[in-house]
Write a structure and sequence with these properties.
Layout lengths: L2 E10 L2 E11 L4 E5 L6 H9 L6 E6 L2 E2 L10 E4 L11 H11 L4 H14 L15 H14 L4 E5 L7 H18 L2 E6 L2 H7 L2 E6 L2 E6 L1 H6 L4 H6 L4 E11 L2 E5 L4 E4 L1 E2 L8 E6 L5 E2 L11 E5 L2 E4 L3 E8 L3 E8 L10 E5 L6 E4 L6
Helix pairs in contact: 2-3, 2-4, 3-4
Length: 361
């Protein structure tokens, strides 16, 4: 099922929760909607589910306008953050519930429940009540209940937020496996970047009710188009600079401690324009002591402190007024001395030039 949002807007009085959203959720995709709290994620999901009326625009399912269709007629399966299981019903009964409302035959209900319990690995728990299950098991019951109705679109509203770190990792694997097996178009709302990056085929990032950028996880991480997105997904260094010139498809940017050549330039800039550079901590490489650190894309800074994390050591270099540059060393073999000057380089393809904007605190 392909889902299209066409100029969708949702207002609550004078507050715009979703603004002019134009978005396509491809058939069979595992599409994530990612963003900070209050950005409009859950509102967008509720509009898709038919739980909220839209203020303007259209929602299309395979080209059919379902904007005014009630939720019960959209073929939607939904897993809520709190699971919403019936506490007095066992696992099998909870999964059966939606099928009985649809007045399916007893044999069809039995077959579908058995199929979804096997898929979600719940067969051994079918007679247990929700209170006798772990958080991860309850989440799987809620998922099985949604899958049993064979939805055209599956909606997941932060389903892993109530689980501990280990269970979240296990459930990521389970959800990815189930999506591969079913190929149901799935729309997943979360504020967790790792969930989106590790599971999604496509990610849409929202901020203040507006779509910021849509792409594959790798595209959004490696080539963000705004300072907000670069700073939001993963960890990066945002460095203020002044645009010097364009050389072919690359840009030259002067910062307070180095001049950088960037092969990823988002925008049309002229000499003197203020810009931001985004450079991931892991994209710096230590230069040998004999190599000059005065050419483009090289810098030498005094080490403030470091944090050892096993496979990574993060070096922190103070510069300017209360600013820090962070650099990750992978598989460090020895400790670098605090206060020492260390030369680094970074490749032009790892330097992203972005329109200037203040970073929100």
């Amino acid at each position: 099922m392909e889902v299209v949002f066409r100029n969708v807007c949702k207002k609550y009085g004078s507050v715009t929760a979703v603004s002019d959203l134009n978005l396509t959720i491809a058939k069979g995709s595992f599409h994530f909607l990612l963003g900070p709290s209050g950005c409009g994620k859950t509102t967008t999901l509720r509009l898709l589910a038919g739980l909220e009326p839209i203020s303007s625009g259209q929602i299309l399912f395979n080209g059919e306008d379902v904007t005014n269709k009630p939720s019960s007629e959209r073929g939607i399966g939904m897993v809520f953050q709190n699971y919403a299981l019936w506490p007095h019903m066992n696992v099998r009964q909870n999964i059966e519930y939606g099928l009985k409302l649809r007045k399916l035959s007893s044999s069809e209900i039995k077959n579908r429940v058995s199929e979804t319990m096997e898929m979600t690995r719940l067969t051994r728990y079918e007679l247990r009540l929700p209170g006798q299950l772990s958080g991860g098991q309850q989440q799987r019951v809620a998922l099985a209940r949604a899958l049993a109705i064979r939805p055209t679109v599956l909606l997941l509203d932060e389903p892993l937020s109530n689980l501990d770190a280990q269970l979240r990792m296990e459930m990521r694997d389970n959800l990815s496996r189930i999506h591969r097996e079913t190929q149901i178009t799935t729309f997943y709302v979360t504020h967790d970047q790792k969930e989106a990056l590790s599971m999604g085929t496509t990610i849409t990032v929202m901020h203040h009710g507006v779509e910021v950028q849509t792409g594959t996880p790798r595209e959004l991480y490696c080539d963000p188009g705004t300072t907000f997105l670069a700073n939001f997904i993963g960890e990066t260094n945002i460095i203020r600079g002044t645009f010097v010139e364009s050389v072919g498809n690359e840009g030259i940017v002067q910062t307070e401690f180095a001049k950088f050549r960037s092969s990823k330039v988002h925008g049309s800039f002229k000499k003197g324009d203020k810009v931001n550079l985004s450079i991931r901590p892991g994209d710096f490489r230590i230069l040998s002591s004999q190599t000059s650190a005065s050419k483009e894309n090289t810098l030498s800074l005094k080490l403030g402190h470091s944090t050892y994390l096993g496979e990574i050591e993060q070096l922190v270099f103070p510069y300017g007024e209360d600013k820090l540059l962070k650099i990750d060393l992978h598989n460090p073999k020895s400790q670098l001395e605090k206060g020492s000057n260390i030369p680094f380089e970074v490749l032009p393809e790892d330097v992203i030039t972005l329109p200037f904007e203040q970073i929100e605190s």
